[in-house]
Amino acid sequence: MNISKSDQMIIKGISGSPGICIGKAYIVDREGVNITKRYPVSDDMVPKEIDRFKQAVSKAKNDHAKVIDSLDKDLGENLNILETHMVLFKDKLLYGKTIDTISHEKINAEWALRKVSGKVKTMFQQIDDKYLQARVIDIVQVSDKIMSYLFGAQDIKISDINKRVIIVAHDLSPADASQIQLERIKGFVTDRGGKDSHTSIIAKSLRIPSVFGLGLATTSVKNDDILIVDGSTGTLIINPDEDTLFKYEDRMARFQEYRADLERESHLPAVTKDGIALNLMANIELVEEVVAAKDNGAIGIGLFRTEFLYLDLKRFPTEDELLIKYKELVELMTPQSVTIRTLDINGDKVNPYLTTIEEANPSLGLRAVRFCLENQDIFITQLKAILRAAAFGNIKLLIPMISCVEEIIQVKQVINKAILELEHEDKIFNKDIPLGAMIEVPSAVIIAEHLAEHVDFFSIGTNDLIQYSMAIDRRNRQVAHLYQALNPAVLKMIKMTYDAAMKKGIDLVMCGEMAGDPINIPVLVGLGLTDFSMNSGAIPVIKRMIRSLDTQKAKKNAEKIMALNTVQEISEFILTEYKEILPFGETDES
Ligand code: PEP
Ligand code: MG
Question: What is the CATH number of the domain that holds 299?
Fold first, then answer.
């Protein structure tokens, strides 16, 4: 609902990341990236479309050449792949055929390129030769690069914004958000987006206020409008009046004080009032976040989302490139542990540079371990880098989105292949590392006892577990109100997973955002969970909560909570029972 008062306009959205910022608007428009068929284009447009295509190819090729020049020449096989791409840019199968298709079929360049690359892909896939089949990925990558230049997508670089502004966008991908430079960008708001999307997770780890799902932000805001972003309550105020501005300046100062106060306590241990020590670790997306994780008092990295390295590079990294990053990470954290999760792309982390699979329901598609098992060369490259890095510190290996026992068996077979290759190559590595499965799909909860036979630990990913169990797209603002961590169904699934892990004697950690929200902590502790990993910014507030909690009381209350039927009853119960200790601030309405 929009409330207008003089020039001021208030739009309510969904809290992406807490905190308040005030500043000038900067609109980033990412629309127009849908490929549409313009058919037929008029005769005089044909040469223009061909010219546009040629220019896109030459820009993509030049940039690609720069990437190759900037790389270490010892990259071996991987450098060869990039050099193959150079040739493919002008290959007659792709280049020549696309030009022919534009002129013969009189269609626009994007549509012609998609048509031709689709045919080439099918052709390669049908060849009875594993090597050539695997080269489909090269075709895909090259045509995607050209496509992005046709869209002009390369012109929109969040990292190039050089003013102190608040970004207003229709949508921001997690990869866009990870380019945000903190010294420039104060906060961001988007029309689209839902709760606990990966973009929101990035915003939280950057500790940058953000509001999503505003629907009308890009149409209501003009560049340089004054904005107030209240990420805690999910509110955007456009051109605030003086009173509102004054009120929010005060609120912003109080929030900053509150945060500073929490941070001063971050080194204190996470021990409950009755002396039970809990383990709080950090979720990170980039190695650079280790400093913040340590400052916030994390005792390890409970989830390293490795896909962001891939999204940033815009290509599949080499084993050595990955090794350098993983080794740096474990060495920084030693002797504490680092849980490296294997590639979780697709779903909401689609990057046209990496995959071009078109899926009607990407979250239900070839995501995470499913993608890795289909693309074993990419998977093996990553596994080898992880096993090699494990020689330098304490690594745990975590597999995302396991939905059946067969998958974990197949994963183990691929790990064995990676081990054999490393042995054959005489490389130093450590294969004795714990293997974990993420429990984030309802089927995994139901067969948790079977899965537990094959792994050393479980990591509950509530972000997806809520998405998949409640059938709520994490990015969809229309259903964000139904995305509820305290839903009895979600709590029951957590309990089932916990019971299965305990029965089978394996470790259990929760790494979903649910663990980073103070209101959820009493019931999680009451159910018996002891290990949590969260965006590192949440650690201080969760520690404060834990230090005021009594586990015996939490256990009794958890039993009562498990007998309640609705989210409302559950949240009211927690708010009443834990009123004194629920911390002020993170979702401050005051
Ligand atoms: C989860 O699903 O809870 C999780 C931690 O993984 P991600 O947010 O990266 O999907
Ligand atoms: Mg997940």
Answer: 3.20.20.60
- Pair 170, 315 in one domain: no
Please write the tens of the pLDDT for every residue from 238-252: 999 999 999 999 999
Q: Which atom, in ligand 1's list, is nearest to the CA of 347? A: 10
Question: Which protein residue's CA is at the shortest distance from atom 4 of ligand 1?
Answer: 461
What is the rounded CA–CA span in Å between residue 166 and residue 25?
5
Question: Would you say 112 and 106 are in contact if contact means Cβ atoms under 8 Å apart?
Answer: no
pLDDT of residue 44: 79
Pocket flag, ligand 1, residue 217 (CB < 6 Å): no
For the whole prediction, is pTM greater than 0.85? no
Total count of domains within the chain: 3
Which residue owns the Cα nearest ligand 1 atom 1?
461
Q: Is 77 within a domain?
A: yes
Task: Using the 3D structure, point to which of 151, 168, 191 is the last residue of a domain.
Answer: 151
Mutate to test the pocket of ligand 1, among 511, 520, 534 (most ligand atoms within 8 A of CB): 511
Length of the chain: 590
Each residue's pLDDT tens digit, 453-466: 999 999 999 999 99
Any atom of ligand 1 within 6 Å of the Cβ of 463: yes
Say if CB 25 and CB 165 are below 8 A apart: yes
Q: Quick one: 209 and 85 in the same domain?
A: no
What CATH number does residue 76 fall under?
1.10.274.10
Q: Are residues 360 and 438 in the same domain?
A: yes
Q: What's the pLDDT tens digit per position in 490-503?
A: 999 999 999 999 99
Two structure tokens written together for 570: 């559950």
Percent over 70 (pLDDT), the chain: 89
Dump pLDDT digits (tens) for 310-348.
887 777 899 999 999 999 999 999 999 999 999 998 877
Examine the domain organization and report whether 361 and 418 are in the same domain: yes
Whether residues 106 and 200 share a domain: the answer is no
Please tell me the residue having the least CA distance from ligand 1 atom 6.
461
The residue annotated as part of the active site, out of 64, 85, 198, 372, is 198
Residue 588 lies in a domain: no
Query: Is 198 tagged catalytic?
Result: yes
* Least confident segment among 72-81, 416-425, 496-505, 529-538: 72-81
Pair 296, 417 in one domain: yes
Pairing of strands 226-230, 235-238: antiparallel
CA pseudo-torsion sign 320, 326, 330, 332: positive
Is residue 16's pLDDT more than 80? yes
**Does the beta carbon of 307 lie inside 6 Å of ligand 1?**
no
Q: Assess if residue 520 is contained within a domain.
A: yes
- pLDDT over 90 (residue 76): no
**Binding site membership of 367 for ligand 1 (Cβ less than 6 Å):** no
Higher pLDDT, 163 or 314: 163
Distance of CA 272 to the CA centre of its chain: 31
Residue 4 has pLDDT above 70, yes or no: no
**Residue 441 C-alpha to ligand 2 middle, in angstroms?**
9
Among all bound ligands, the one having the nearest atom to the CA of 485 is 1
SS (H, E, C) 509-545: EECCHHHHCHHHHHHHHHCCCCEEEEEHHHHHHHHHH
Ligand 1 atom nearest 512 alpha carbon: 3
Judged by DSSP in three states, 204 sits in helix
Residues 284, 216, single domain; the answer is: no
- State which residues form the domain around 350: 266-577
Q: What is the mean pLDDT of residues 210-236?
A: 90
Shared domain for 166 and 189, answered yes or no, is yes
- The last residue of one of the domains, among 258, 281, 306, is 258
Asked whether residue 15 is assigned to any structural domain, the reply reads yes
